[in-house]
Structure of Acyl-CoA dehydrogenase family protein:
Amino acid sequence: MTSVTTQTSNSAETDYETLANRFRPIFARIAEGASAREQDHRLPFDEIKELTKAGFGAVRVPVADGGAGASLPQLFRLLTELAAADSNIPQALRGHFAFVEDRLVSSGPQRAVWLERFVNGEIAGNSWTEVGSVKIGDVITKVSPDSDSASGGFRVNGTKYYSTGSIFADWIDTFAQRTDNDVKVIAVVNAHQPGVTHSDDWDGFGQQTTGSGTSTFKDAVVEAENVIDFDTRFKYQTAFYQAVLLAVLAGSIKAAERDIATEVRNRTRIFSHGNADSFREDPQILQVIGEVSARAYAAEATVERAAQALQRAYEAAFLGDLEQEEHLNDLAELESAQAQVVLSDLATRATSDIFNALSASGTSTKKNLDRHWRNARTAANHNPWVFKARIIGDYAVNGALPPRVWAIGAGPTADKK
């Protein structure tokens, strides 16, 4: 007898405040140590473990499967709140939530297996990018049939960079190519095996505790059921990945607003050419804070709008209308690009403007307020917005659809130098 796995979209929203209140005490504890963690370069292992133990990694899993049943707008509101506590952590979990999303829209018996793992607190990392001599479109990391495996398993060999979150993960979502048929795949590798090593060697000036760095696979074992054809990947993946960075940017502005307000509230020194007897009452200083707050409001609204487009793309995966599904996925990609162009400027400006209210003391390395700008500037540099702006313009003028998958690598003239 053949069994058929049927799933429907997880579109019925749970109450957001009830959901968020489960995690806000953890967010508060995370915020208390965020600056010190960065200054000491201490990765948030304990903080991520506390979140996953509380069910944060399974908020998108349907209630019937043991999760919280959150919609995508609710997920991104949570990620924005978390980013306001520590913008590194939602980026470290970016690959996890993308893999959860992929499993949610998948079918077959492995879907239930993965949802159970997420509910049990297991998380996935991200390992896609190769640098150096690899040409654009090529994949050096290979997945080969394991001749010693009785169950038809595989072995993975290769090196990945910018493998954000993998150092915290139980599983690693790895982009690779099979050697037996050249098909590009996702190899979901168990991180707890001798053939997998990680290095925390990301050297960016911001987002320093995301655990991003080099992941190396040397004859790492991967089961046959965990080698997934890349072409079956969820269609709104690039828009989803970008939306996590949007939440990082929005949260960075919220954190800047919070910290500048605290500094101004507690400041006792004033300037003789200022406008009030206390800093907290000076109208020009209040104007600066008000402008930062307004930008935080606009950022959260922008993330919400992009998340709603993603929710429509997610729900379309279950409609059985391919033309409508493609249309909604194109719109989700377009809206995430529009949001990126706006927020990249908004966040870097807002996190820079905090210093206009604090004068020289605001640049103290002990206060570490510059981390908000550095983190926003770094997150904004992912997936260059200048290309996105052109793509948006091409759609507006010529109706050209945005690409939903792209790659990075050496250009065709690189070997001629």
About this structure: The two ends are 62 Å apart (CA to CA). The first strand starts at residue 124 and ends at 127.
